[in-house]
């Protein structure tokens, strides 16, 4: 996460997505913490900075609430830390800190170009005045300090640019800055030098006169001695003022756009050039090899300069092209009349004493001829360095290879935004990210797409990427023909391939998720062909061979839909899934889950192609384990498994009476229990368990016992829950099925929580969390984190509880699992009420209540969660003194609890009504209700443990005080 104060206060996620920090006071709190750059800020200081003399009614609680809101907005509680000295923001990813470091590095550097780059990077961080939103309040001193540092950086940059000979452009640019800061003598001196060196002596003298008058009028001072000396030098046209000579030995064109996301690459390639005389940049078409090469070459300073030789349109005669570029000619003939071997030798002789860089661009179609010439030059001209770009290596001794990667997502987004001129907001940001991802981070493709934004908008471009070759055509005017459309870029590479290589590309393109060597060989692509395609940058290498999405789309356009290779692929992945299916139950579960994870895109492609029932059957349990309930429901509609997936996916209740086997019967019961539909689940479980035992299906028996544990918990039969859970755990342990152990641990942990054994509950939930993380069952990880949050809540660790629940909610959101998200939300509501933040608690519980009510309507069954939520809302109303509202909520909760038949839920509603009675002075009624609730809890062996007695103890105190 990054923070910005060099302009309006801003926060960005690691991928560049803006993060909204709502409410002015919360933004002010963040700004105040950023002002102190990681140092703790006392609560008193924060209160004074944020409210001044107009403090809120409860300052400490209000500040805590703002801190909580800031933590929620940032999504990481650890960022805002608390210690005895106060609050601090634990991050150095702040543009102001980065600016200060870059400026310090620039001031320490003796290399002019390095200094210029550092200063340019530092100043590029500024988006407006420092602390723009708060510079007139607590941030005033910090803003003034940063403003002064920025001016220092600008002055330093001006002097460096003068030393590099950039006086012409600088003269006009500094004019605007001098107008803003007319009395800064160092800035004025740089401006006078730039004017003089640009041949504008009279303007330079006028600028000095203007400064002298302003200093006298406003400060009563004369110009300093350095400025006086500069004025005298300008008057006499001192030769010392002339610009330093700048080499013009280059034909490298000036870039018309900035290079984005390549800082590390430039540094790495520059280091390679220091250690190797031949560096070759490889990579797929459009990845930016040429742009990177030119950026690197321009940083090299050799007496003979830097020379670019463009080979893309050449059909041969490489030596002639190089000679023409360097101006190497025979005294009696033109180069075209000299035999090629002689010309190459003459070129080598001419360069023997030279020290220069030769940039050979786009060598792939002439790689043999280029390699021969380069080998000769490197052998005979020791001062020559070669930087080549090619889709394959020159394969010469001493060659240093650098594979230019596509841009990472953050850099791709930055480039697309810059080129399109669009500023992504919350609505367009996901579309920008989708464009960058689907175009594989290829700079050329991103530029072509950005050119379409003005006509189509960001979303319009994203929605048309399925027809990318038409979309990205005609948008590249000003480039070579081979780069004017996306199709032309790939055409250029395709034309360099042999027929066997082309056939291999088509066979690889039908694997949307890439493929293993085994899968490639299954469709007729052997290791030798793979090696050739990897060497030509058409395919990425082992362990999975992949094509860029655009290259794959190009190949699929050329593939005959009836090509037998498609049927071969379908058969291969179907057999793989069938082979994997039995291993998903037992000790090899983790290994085969990982194997299917790698092939998920390929498996989906086969399903879309064939709809094979055999493949569906093989993947059903995999879909469940990975939490892909929607996918499972889509492919199993009309079956018993489909009925279970329908419920888990939130698609409504679809009853099934046809069960082909005991496992499908158990699965539907398992789904019913997920919603607390005990009445339906009981019969299904009894029948499934009997069938499992008759068939000696140990896995099925263990699964049914785990479900029976959950059923018993709902019914308040804790003895049955304990025995069933222990049996399930034992059998799953024998089988080595980690998922099963996870389920049993979860239920037994919940049982320990209900009975007050918090240490055991914590151990069991942590064991389940380790299993879930090991199997990469992220929805289960979310549930386990929230379960640990419940234990932290019950043991009084409210901050820790909130952290667990927030992690669980964030992970559930990433998995798009609303049920796990809801479980975490309720936990956060419990934390908020116990922390005294009733408004936040009410907001969370009302959202939960609305969702649960909607599910009750959709599924036609009462939900256990409703009783808890109504009770919590009732306690919130009581806490505000709203007894009438509290009574209504608790009565509604009591009716819901009786409908689901859970004694503990009935007791909870009675405890809420007891508080209402006590607040109204009906102490005998309150005591009676508490006694009935306690008896109900005792009847199922679950008296209130210490961690859950807070509400009851409060009611008892009210009764004692009023009696």
Structure in words:
- The protein is mainly α.
- Among the domains are: 1-161, Arc Repressor Mutant, subunit A, CATH 1.10.10.10; 165-243, Alpha Horseshoe (Serine Threonine Protein Phosphatase 5, Tetratricopeptide repeat), CATH 1.25.40.10; 263-403, P-loop containing nucleotide triphosphate hydrolases (Rossmann fold, 3-Layer(aba) Sandwich); 409-485; 497-559, Arc Repressor Mutant, subunit A; 862-963, Tetratricopeptide repeat domain (Serine Threonine Protein Phosphatase 5, Tetratricopeptide repeat, Alpha Horseshoe).
- Helix content is 64%, strand content 4%.
- The protein is built from 46 helices and 9 strands.
- The strands form 3 sheets. It has a 5-stranded parallel sheet, sandwiched between helices. A two-stranded antiparallel sheet has the order 1-2. It has a two-stranded antiparallel ribbon with strand order 3-4.
- The longest helix has 24 residues, at 140-163.
- Pfam families: AAA_22, BTAD, Trans_reg_C.
- InterPro entries: AAA_22, BTAD, OmpR/PhoB-type_DNA-bd, P-loop_NTPase, Sig_transdc_resp-reg_C-effctor, TPR-like_helical_dom_sf, TPR_rpt, WH-like_DNA-bd_sf.
- Residues 1-91 bind DNA.
- Residues 1-91 form the OmpR/PhoB-type domain.
- This is ATPase/DNA-binding SARP family transcriptional activator.
């Amino acid at each position: 996460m990054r923070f910005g104060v060099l302009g309006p206060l801003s926060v960005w996620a690691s991928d560049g997505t803006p993060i909204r920090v709502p409410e002015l006071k919360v933004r002010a709190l963040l700004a105040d913490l950023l002002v102190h750059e990681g140092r703790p800020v006392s609560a008193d200081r924060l209160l004074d900075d944020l409210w001044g003399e107009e403090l809120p009614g409860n300052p400490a609680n209000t500040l805590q609430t703002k801190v909580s809101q800031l933590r929620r907005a940032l999504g990481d509680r650890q960022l805002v830390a608390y210690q005895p000295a106060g609050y601090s923001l634990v991050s150095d990813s702040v543009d102001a800190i980065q600016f200060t470091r870059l400026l310090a590095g620039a001031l320490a550097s003796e290399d002019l170009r390095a200094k210029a780059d550092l200063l340019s990077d530092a100043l590029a961080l500024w988006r407006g005045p420092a602390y723009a939103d708060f510079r007139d309040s607590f941030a005033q001193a910090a803003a003034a300090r940063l403003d002064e540092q920025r001016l220092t950086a600008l002055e330093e940059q001006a002097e460096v640019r003068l030393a590099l000979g950039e006086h012409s452009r600088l003269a006009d640019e500094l004019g605007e800055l001098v107008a803003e800061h007319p009395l800064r003598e160092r800035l004025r001196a740089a401006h006078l030098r730039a004017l003089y060196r640009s041949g504008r002596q009279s303007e330079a003298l006028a600028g000095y006169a203007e400064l002298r008058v302003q200093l006298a009028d406003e400060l009563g001072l004369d110009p300093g001695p350095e400025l006086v000396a500069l004025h005298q030098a300008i008057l006499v046209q001192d030769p010392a003022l002339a610009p330093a000579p700048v080499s013009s030995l280059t034909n490298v064109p000036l870039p018309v756009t900035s290079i984005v996301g390549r800082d590390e690459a430039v540094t790495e390639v520059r280091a390679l050039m220091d250690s190797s005389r031949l560096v070759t940049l490889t990579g797929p078409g459009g990845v930016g090899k040429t742009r990177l090469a030119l950026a690197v070459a321009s940083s090299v300073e050799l007496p003979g300069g830097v020379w670019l030789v463009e080979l893309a349109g050449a059909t041969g005669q490489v030596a002639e092209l190089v000679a023409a570029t360097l101006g190497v000619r025979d005294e009696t003939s033109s180069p075209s009349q000299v035999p090629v071997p002689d010309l190459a030798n003459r070129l080598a002789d001419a360069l023997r004493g030279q020290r220069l860089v030769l940039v050979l661009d786009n060598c792939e179609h002439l790689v043999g001829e280029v390699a021969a010439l380069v080998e000769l030059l490197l052998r005979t001209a020791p001062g020559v360095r070669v930087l080549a770009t090619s889709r394959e290596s020159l394969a010469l001794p001493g060659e240093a290879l650098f594979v230019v990667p596509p841009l990472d997502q953050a850099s791709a987004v930055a480039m697309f935004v810059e080129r399109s001129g669009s500023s992504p907001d919350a609505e367009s940001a996901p579309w920008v990210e989708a464009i960058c991802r689907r175009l594989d981070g290829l700079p050329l493709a991103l530029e072509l797409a950005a050119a379409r934004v003005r006509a189509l908008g960001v979303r319009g471009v994203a929605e048309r990427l399925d027809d990318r070759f038409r979309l990205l055509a005609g948008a590249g005017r000003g480039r070579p023909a081979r780069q004017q459309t996306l199709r032309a870029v790939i055409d250029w590479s395709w034309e360099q391939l042999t027929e066997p290589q082309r056939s291999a590309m088509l066979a690889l393109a039908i694997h949307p998720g890439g493929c293993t060597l085994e899968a490639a060989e299954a469709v007729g692509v052997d290791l030798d062909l793979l090696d050739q395609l990897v060497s030509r940058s058409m395919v990425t290498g082992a362990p999975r061979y992949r094509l860029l999405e655009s290259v794959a789309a190009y190949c699929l356009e050329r593939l005959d839909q009836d090509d037998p290779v498609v049927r071969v692929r379908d058969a291969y992945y179907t057999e793989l899934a069938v082979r994997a299916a039995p291993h998903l139950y037992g000790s090899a579960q983790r290994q085969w889950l990982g194997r299917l994870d790698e092939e998920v895109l390929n498996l989906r492609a086969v399903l879309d192609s064939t709809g094979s029932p055999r493949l569906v059957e093989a993947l059903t349990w995999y879909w469940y384990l990975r939490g892909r309930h929607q996918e499972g429901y889509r492919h199993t509609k009309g079956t018993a498994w489909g009925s279970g997936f329908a419920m888990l996916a939130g698609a409504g209740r679809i009853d099934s009476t046809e069960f082909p086997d005991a496992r499908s019967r158990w699965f539907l019961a398992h789904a019913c229990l997920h919603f607390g539909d005990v009445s339906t689940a009981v019969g299904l479980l009894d029948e499934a368990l009997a069938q499992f035992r008759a068939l000696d299906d140990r896995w099925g028996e263990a699964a049914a016992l785990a479900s029976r544990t959950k059923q018993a918990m709902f019914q308040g039969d804790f003895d049955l829950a304990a025995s069933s859970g222990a049996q399930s755990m034992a059998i799953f342990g024998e089988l080595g099925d980690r998922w099963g152990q996870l389920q049993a641990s979860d239920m037994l942990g919940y049982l320990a929580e209900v009975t007050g054994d918090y240490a055991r509950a914590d151990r069991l939930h942590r064991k389940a969390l380790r299993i879930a993380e090991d199997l990469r069952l992220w929805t289960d990880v979310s549930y386990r984190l929230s379960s640990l949050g419940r234990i932290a809540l019950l043991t009084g660790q409210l901050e820790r509880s909130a952290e667990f629940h927030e992690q669980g909610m964030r992970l559930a959101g990433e998995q798009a699992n609303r049920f796990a998200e809801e479980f975490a939300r309720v936990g956060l509501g419990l934390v908020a009420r116990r922390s005294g933040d009733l408004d936040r608690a009410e907001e969370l519980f009302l959202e939960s209540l609305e969702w649960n009510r909607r599910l009750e309507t959709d599924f036609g069954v009462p939900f256990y969660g409703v009783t808890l939520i109504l009770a919590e809302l009732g306690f919130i109303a009581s806490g505000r003194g709203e007894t009438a509202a509290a009574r209504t909520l608790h009565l509604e909760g009591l009716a819901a609890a009786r409908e689901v038949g859970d004694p503990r839920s009935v007791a909870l509603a009675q405890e809420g009504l007891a508080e209402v009675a006590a607040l109204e002075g009906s102490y005998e009624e309150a005591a009676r209700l508490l006694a009935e609730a306690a008896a109900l809890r005792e009847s199922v062996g679950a008296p209130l443990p210490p961690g859950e007695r807070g509400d009851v103890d409060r009611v008892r105190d009210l009764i004692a005080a009023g009696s």
